[in-house]
Records
---
Amino acid sequence: MRLHYLIHQNWKLKAAYSKNIQAVRELTVENRFGREVEFLALSQPDAGYPVLKSDKYMIGAGFTSDKLILAGELYYKKTNGLISVRAPRPDPSFMDATSPSEFYRLYTGDGWTAGFDLIAIYKLKKSETSISYTLSKISQQFDQLFNGEEFSPTEDRRHQVKITSQYRIGPFIASGLINYKTEASYIRLVRLEGQGGIDMATHETVTADLPAYFSLDLALDYSFRIAKQTALIGASIINVTDHKNINDIQHVGRIPRGAENQLFLTNETELLGRTFNVHFRYLID
């Protein structure tokens, strides 16, 4: 359900509500070698595989003129029937002949997401610039994880800023993109060791932070006509500053080190470093 109310020729208020039901779920399992296996599963509430249900609420306001567009939205999403498949202890199959599938458990829980989105777009004859900002929080709660306390998953990055700009010089189009996201927490299995398992540990004591994400992308295109249709040829550089951007840290497992000590092996999954691209586009009207 969507509602729009025009206050003035340039100003409007808006609100929306939606109820969503999802019976087919996508589950992800990370094995002890750090590989993620994704598969689809049909919900079976009687067997402990719940249907995913969510209620979404949004209120906002917007301003539109020939050169300027402003829009802001407050949103809240309540989710029931979350599923997480994971092993309660770090690398439980280490030096154990039991089938690895015996160590995984399916946890169900609830969660919510709340935030504020703000976007501003300024247009001139030869240029266009946009700035967007998101302030958000994601929270999840599973009765059998972290003593039932709420926690934020890795996807939760509190502040996100994106700036894009485009400028035309004759047949050339120059553009740039700045993207920034604050830190995100993840579970460190090294800290989890000795805590009695992920179900009994306190979330704050076993987490660390992924670094903040930053990237600068630049591109230059040349526009021309082929058979009365527009074509573009250009080059771009992704992550110009070559910042080290970490998307995830995977725990591969343990190896013996001495009589009693054991060593965890981890693997950082890095996003693109400085990357050069050449591209061609042909637009059919």
Note: The chain has a mean pLDDT of 88.
---
Amino acid sequence: MPNTILYGGIIYDVENSEELIAAALRSTNTNTEMFASRSISANNTRSAWDYLEGTKIEVVEIDNILTNSGIDNVIHIGIEANEESFKSLSGNSPEILHIATHGFFLEDENQIVSNPFMQSMNINNQVAHNPLLRSGLLFAGANRAWVNDDVIPDIEDGILTAEEVSHLNLSKTKLIVLSACETGLGEVNNSEGVFGLQRAFKLSGVETLVMSLWKVDDTATKDFMIEFYQNLMSGKTKQEAFKTAQQTIRTKYRNPFYWAGFVMLD
């Protein structure tokens, strides 16, 4: 297993179902239980997720930084950046995981009711009562399930929920970087703590997380992440690399919106 695995430049709209199925089969680990594979027949024309050009530039640049530092790494781009490949890491995850993609957290009941993907899971109103089902990350081909249109049976739907993450074993991962929107959000419920992706990845055994608290600008995120890995490869600790990257990006983007959204959780 390489020391680092990177996900970025993910294609959420995949018209050729045969290509998507072939990529899924290449990435499937037959020893790993698949936690969600849904087939949805109803059609819905609601908005889907847009391609994030900056994420491909981001992970290619990080790949170069790691390679030049002698770090063994693998990069998943396009339709190869699928949910199957991520779930296959359970039990044998790398030291660093970097995921540059869309993230989501649906808090409002109206959002849940109007969202086709949420409604596909809403048996016995379980989504409304389980915040781990209302947050997640998007992988290759995810738009089919998100808009409830032509979902392919027998492969993963491309939407990795926090509930699914919580069932994985990522205890070998020292650092996971979620270069995505709203990945740090969740729900506070009395003494149960904060749910959502941060809770799920902690349950999976990850040591340290870097994630965002709001929708982050694509270009600013790319700049921040490249700066962070350059600092990390220069010998700084995770904490030092993060703090220095934040300070550097702050000089480029004065508005806190662009740099203050990222947090590190140990």
Note: The chain has one domain: 4-265.
---
Amino acid sequence: MIRHLRWPTLSGVLLLAACVTAPVPPGAPADPVPVRDWPGNPVIQPADAGGVFQENLSGLAYQASGSAPGVLWAALNGPGSVFRLVRDGSIWTPDPRDDWGEGKRVHYPDGTGEPDAEGITFTGSGDGLALYVASERNNEVRDVSRNSVLRFDPGEPGATLVATHEWNLTSDIPATGANSGIEAIAFVPDAFLVSSGFRDERVGGAYDPARYPDHGGGLFFVGVEGTGMIYGYALNHRDGSFGRIATISSGLPAVMALEFDPGSSRMWAVCDNGCDGRAALLSIDDLPGSATTGRFTATAFHLRPGGMPNLNNEGFAVAPLEECAAGTRSVFWSDDGESDGHSLRRGALACP
């Protein structure tokens, strides 16, 4: 194990990332993929007031405001809810305005049920902002898989949100236990996919957004807890149909969080305490010595930050490059187990 590091404070600059020689996780690509230390400051700090969520905080997504700070969207898996979190000094707290103070309970499009809200992402901005929640089951029927992506309008008034759309992917995803299905979701814009030469497995060639009308300007990638697989979908917003565009091995035994980072053109897949908080960093055709494939491939695995206990982290979000300061930007984790009374933690990631 070779390290050459200097970490003065949480806001300090990453001088040199460490390289760690370690076994490749089960399911990783056949070619050796490096396992490295966390590429940022190892210091981690609580980012909530403590005792706010009473466990079950899962997915996270960071919405930039154009000037720091932005908004953290969070999914609570039981009772199924969505939170809008705003910064108050050094902590993030539920927005007290517009009925967001206790989070908003979520329901299926017919107004019934309680989706097990595990992952969250968004598209658009302003009045065009839409939230997408990944759910593996209806909490009112806990023993039955219902692997769905649900779209919500965060501008809907009141203390509940009724889904405008549901894409039930259960028949398309290899069977898992009802509590080990879709756990994470990330949105990747068409512009990035096309410019990167992304491959469409349905047609066996380059991805062409024009083949998929009304799909929302990008693809939605979902991560499965029970298998560590990631699937990319075009979701038709007019008729509710869907098409699987990509099948990706994360190289991890489980995927609990997904985050596409436009600033680095990478996708993060994050595991929980079941694999020591390890994360896979995936990119399109960026593995040295590999052939051009047009697929997301794990190009590195990262250990959790040195200051992070082995927590049941199920959410991960990265602030944009515009919020870089002193060579780092904020990253956030959500702990489903609310260890030591905290569900949110903040760290620092080196800016590319």
Note: The CA atoms of residues 56 and 239 lie 33 Å apart.
---
Amino acid sequence: MLSLRDVNAYYGKSHVLNDVTLSVRAGEIVSLLGRNGVGKTTLLKSIMGLLKQVSGEITFQGKSLRSLKAWKISRLGITYLPQERNVFPELTVAENMRIRVSTRGSKSEDIREVLESFPILSERLNQVANTLSGGERMILSLAAGLAADSDLIILDEPSAGVMPIFVDTMGALLQRKSKGGKAVFIVEQNLRLALTISDKVMIMDNGVIHYVGLPRELEKDRFTINQLLGVGT
């Protein structure tokens, strides 16, 4: 579904990504872990055409993304949820959902599944978004993105600032999406979430992917967790 080969990215003269190679298959959840500032978000922006200084091969379903603008990449069937959980503050919850899913289309069962997963939104469909709490606005942004009919879902730290109960709900929803054939690529710092829902985990440090393996293998590898993620044993 998604393939990167020898991808390098720069901010001016700063070399941020170094020969990154990875793949995400249909029906698979892949999590990329790493400390702050190691290049994870830069990688996602490189995939989505949001950076200019990028080299290497990036393909989605066999089609090169390198020469495409971000909106064209999205139209191919990719949902990208950045760290900024933006909503339209003057619109209602229902209107925010409608706008987000209209850009890629949606199936009624996708919208229903998301609202059933987050009943707090179902109870507030007619409420204006700027009257929601910060955590509720984050859930709204995530839910609207996950309701869109996309083949690949890319999320940048979706658990950040979200209550633990909603993190678990989101993880279960992503697993159902992957079982339905969607590909999911997550940048995360929440080790528990990644180990729980992923089919494959990777760890990045200083723009280089140093580890690729199964969640159960990483869970037992306390040395790697400590050295690359800074999580004590």
Note: Strands lie at 2-11, 14-24, 29-33, 54-60, 63-64, 78-81, 152-156, 183-188, 200-205, 208-213.
